[in-house]
Design a protein that fits this description.
The structure holds two protein chains of two kinds.
Chain A: H1 4-12, H2 14-18, H3 26-47, H4 51-74, H5 78-85, H6 131-141, H7 147-155, H8 158-187, E1 193-199, E2 205-210, H9 219-229, E3 234-237, E4 246-250, H10 254-264, E5 273-275
Parallel strand pairs in A: 1-5
Antiparallel strand pairs in A: 1-2, 2-4, 3-4
Helix pairs in contact in A: 3-5, 6-7, 6-8, 9-10
Chain B: E1 12-15, H1 18-31, H2 39-42, E2 49-54, E3 58-63, E4 66-72, E5 78-79, H3 81-86, E6 93-96, H4 101-105, E7 110-111, H5 112-116, E8 122-123, E9 131-136, E10 144-148, H6 152-158, E11 162-169, H7 173-176
Parallel strand pairs in B: 6-9
Antiparallel strand pairs in B: 1-2, 2-3, 3-4, 4-5, 6-8, 7-11, 9-10, 10-11
Classes of the chains: A alpha+beta, B alpha+beta.
Amino acid sequence: MDHPRRQRARNEFAGAMAENGGEMDAAGEAEEDLFDRSGGDAGDAASGDDRPTRERRRGKKGKKKGRDEPDQEQDEDNEDLFADGGPGPSSSADEVPWEHDKQPPLGAPVRVQYCPDCGMPPDFCDWGGMWDKCKIRAAEQYPQYYPELAEKMASLTLEEKEQVEAAAAASVANTELKLLAKKNKGKEVEQKVTVQRQNRKGRKFITTVKGLETFGVKLDKASKVFSKAFSCGAAVVKGAPGQPDEIDIQGDVEDGLEEVILRTFPEVDDDKIYYLKPK
Amino acid sequence: MFKRFSYSDVSTQNQVKSSVQRKIRTDLLEQFPRLDPVIDDILPKKSPLVIAKCPNQIQVVLVNSVPVCVQSRDGPWVPTLRLLHQHPSMMPKMQADKGATKFIMGGANVMCPGLTHPTGGRMEDVDRGAVVQILLEGREHACAVGIMTMSTAEIRKENKGVCIEVVHVLNDGLWKTNHFG
């Protein structure tokens, strides 16, 4: 039933396809099709040690494919139908013609299956920043992109596989720790409350309280507390870009402020309250 | 351009006038004539178009809060990689050899020798200023989009220095910000 040339191609990649476990549903077929096309190049890449040879081979292959194409069209195989309507140009980027304007006109969008872990396209998982985790999946599902890795993983014994998985888990935990440390490092600022009186006009003042948030105090709550305690207006003022917010209290309330802060927010350390020179 | 970019860098987001919307549509079609059959899917007529303004005079066109294309000052529109992956043949391809991978993935501009490399490099004939997709030897999907600073003929002749200015690359700030808001 199959075209003889196709049959030959199949035998060539039979080894690779065995991994597919002979799934014959639509998805399985699509994957198989990918194999048919790009698996060939992968094989070339693995076997061709010196570049010129590899190039010649690829050239030959290209010509052969070019001749093959009409055959494929005549072939009323399910697989071919799927290939025409399905993945389309993206899955055959390496085929002739290569130029973008010689591809079939744009149709339905190609849905690239991005890696669920790193969010990269499958052939760029190794740049996604969590390769140790991704490579297990990559070797299983996308051997056409990582021929060497797939070979290596396939040759591993069960025990070694477990080791790789453990290493992956460890490295994931490690990167998470690092991320966390980085986050905390960015956040870790000195716990310090500063109080500064500012002169507005004549005998009018504003008292500015900075740094309450370093003790985990909610600024809007604190401003409410201050306005009640001193019977005056108090507001959270947006800090300059890159600076944390601060609280402005109307009037000179430096005297009672420390007491109020310590009473209402026991988490604030009384050694960490500093009075700055009035402005 | 988007190496350090996050949603917090967006200064304003505005729904655009229908005339501006029309302008964007015609501009896109002019730049990428191959988009003609699918432009209605990319910029649906029904849903409103939003432009997000970012630092350095960068504008990002959003459809349903998803970035579609970007523009720096009044340069050409550059589609996002996610859009490009959906329509891989929308624009010319330039392929660099394997050795360039780590530089391009780090956001570097593409240099001539990578494209003229005897086994890894491949080029289409384009002019200076064209928006192109950057492929890497041995990989299927585009890894970056950029603007040509030399024409293909010039690249062949000079074979030196920067020839594609990379705008947007995999795993940069814009790639990670797939949803604005």
